[in-house]
Specification:
six-stranded parallel β-sheet; Rossmann fold; alpha/beta; 18 helices; single chain
């Protein structure tokens, strides 16, 4: 039976058909939907782990126990999971273990634009790269066969376009292979004496995988013309076919590590001009050059951002048809925190006190944009606390009383705890604010260890943040409601003045959660409003100015009341009957 599927959903279907029994991931765009879709199959145990390292270690444990396992993350998540990944290449697996990493060329939802193919090369593990949903399903099943055939974890590299585009797939039946666990200290205990003996096995495996890459049908040559030959993979293959059709020859690579040298040499010998079309780094191009083959690539194509049909056509000197444009200038609509976002009041209080705010990864990163313009650093998951500790240790009295870290509840569980342990252990006079919106907001409302629910919404273990940070050695811990500006202001003032580490938990559920009941929207009494724009300082999208007076969009307002606390004339009123 054929179905139209997102690439991520097709991966999940592949997991089902491949007989996967265990899935552990951490949400990260553009990979999140894989695990959410897999969780819809009752036959697959699925979970959100606190971070990607824990997720991959858990998946490895399931593989060790004899059942096929999976771990998904975005490209920066693989940085976190790299530690176990590199050693798994030495130990090998028992049942098949597949890792999906979804790269984000164009940085639609990411803080960098790294190319995950480097991880496969460095870790010496095979990597497959589908170019549409049908291949996403097919390659997932194939990846488990390769994993068990070569005793290795296998990475599938997705990208935003393949993950979030739809194409037709052919679905099949579920088959569940089973393996038994056998104790093997020499294989699985990677102390130096054993690891030294495993490294030659890894190198021999890579040679065998090269032979496999030469013959596998997922690497295929499409010979149509001897003038131009293009080597490509992933979504770039789709762009090449749309631009050139059958007017050029194409070597389509489905396995991008290891690469097939003989297949590439043979293809190159059949064309006059050879070009590699690949997003981001010149991985394939540099490999082709290492074979002594003359090839073009990054001399005509960029190393940044996503490709497109027009970009490729223009790079090859083809005429690009002008697109349809709108004559009227459309105003820019930069991203902002939602109306009623619980972080807004807290950020306003920090701005009011002219605090230096080192931030973290989450939707609260939008506290960096006008008019709040509060966050001054966003590096990686958990970095806010470690950076604040170092900042305060160096500047000492110059930073005391004004420098804070802000981090979300999910991000704190992911990577923030070790940073806070460092603050408590090495005693920097640092204030950490945990923005507890009771969900993982940025990636679409996934549960986390502080919410009390698992991936299916069933009751689960719930970590108490107050007790946790106290147990870590923080004596000063207080909870505030970010809708209460006076409470926030007082807490920030007092904790920054304290001569010891402290934690403020700003607790209010995300305004977009379905179970959150909002108050009636507010309205403005035009007679009282003097047009001072004090209410505009919080940057709420529900508030605008019309005819010199503040105006509230009732379709957006959730009645949080933060704006009314800023109005000197008490012009805001409830619309409740």
């Amino acid at each position: 039976m054929k179905q139209l599927m997102l690439g991520n959903k097709a991966i999940a279907r592949g997991l089902y058909e491949a007989g996967v029994c265990f899935v552990s991931s951490y949400p990260g765009t553009p990979s999140t939907e894989i695990t959410e879709e897999a969780a819809k199959f009752d036959e697959i145990y699925c979970e959100w782990a606190p971070n990607e390292k824990v997720a991959l270690e858990s998946a490895f444990g399931a593989s060790l126990a004899g059942r096929r396992a999976f771990c998904g993350q975005k490209h920066v998540g693989l940085n976190v999971a790299a530690d176990p990944l590199f050693t798994m290449a030495y130990t090998g697996v028992n049942a098949g273990l597949v890792i999906v990493v979804a790269d984000d060329a164009g940085m639609h939802s990411s803080q960098n634009e790294q190319d995950s193919r480097h991880y496969a090369i460095a870790a010496k593990v095979p990597m497959l790269e589908p170019s549409d949903s049908a291949e996403a399903l097919e390659f997932t099943k194939l990846a488990y066969e390769i994993s068990e055939l070569f005793d290795t974890p296998v990475i599938i590299k997705m990208c935003t376009r393949v993950a979030h585009s739809q194409s037709v797939v052919e679905i099949g039946e579920r088959v569940v292979p089973e393996k038994s666990y056998e104790k093997d200290i020499a294989k699985y205990v990677m102390m130096p004496g054993n690891a030294k003996k495993r490294h030659p096995i890894v190198e021999a495996r890579m040679k065998n995988l090269i032979e496999y890459a030469e013959k596998t049908p997922i690497n295929r040559a499409e010979i149509f013309s001897g003038e131009i030959g293009i080597i490509t993979s992933s979504t770039s293959y789709q762009y090449v076919k749309e631009v050139f059709g059958d007017s050029v020859s194409v070597l389509k690579l489905g396995m991008v590590n290891p690469l097939p040298p003989e297949l590439i040499k043979d293809f190159a010998s059949k064309v006059k001009r050879l070009v590699v079309v690949e997003e981001l780094d010149a991985v394939i191009e540099n490999f082709v050059k290492s074979l002594g083959i003359k090839v073009e690539g990054k001399n005509i194509l960029p190393v940044i951002d996503e490709f497109s049909q027009n970009l490729i056509a223009k790079s090859f000197g083809k005429e690009v048809t002008a697109g349809v444009t709108v004559e009227d200038k459309i105003p820019a609509r930069p991203p902002v925190m939602c109306a009623g976002c619980p972080h807004r009041g807290l950020f306003y209080s920090l701005k009011k006190r002219n605090c230096t705010v080192l931030g973290d990864i989450g939707c609260y990163t939008l506290g960096a944009v006008p008019p709040l313009s509060t966050i001054e650093l966003t590096l990686c998951m958990g970095a806010s606390i470690g950076a604040t500790h170092g900042f305060n240790k160096i500047l000492g009295e110059k930073s005391e009383g004004k420098t804070v870290a802000v981090i979300g509840d999910s991000t704190f569980m992911h990577s923030g705890m070790t940073g806070l342990a460092n603050v408590a252990y090495n005693q920097s006079n640092s204030t950490v604010i945990i923005l507890d919106n009771s969900i993982t907001g940025m990636t679409g409302h996934q549960q986390n260890p502080t919410t009390g629910f698992n991936i299916k919404g069933d009751p689960a273990g719930k970590i108490n943040l107050e007790e946790l940070v106290k147990a870590m050695g923080i004596k000063r811990v207080r909870v505030v409601d970010p809708y209460n500006l006076k409470e926030c202001d007082a807490a920030i003032k007092e904790e920054l003045a304290a001569a010891e580490p402290s934690v403020i938990i700003s607790r209010r559920p995300c305004a977009l959660l379905k179970y959150v009941k909002h108050k009636p929207p507010l309205a403005v009494d035009a007679e009282k409003c003097i047009g001072c724009k004090s209410c505009m300082k919080i940057g709420c999208p529900a508030i605008s100015m019309k005819d010199g007076k503040a105006f509230v969009d009732a379709t957006q307002c959730v009645g949080c009341g933060v704006c009314s606390q800023l109005c000197p004339k008490k012009a805001f009123m409830s619309t409740e009957a």
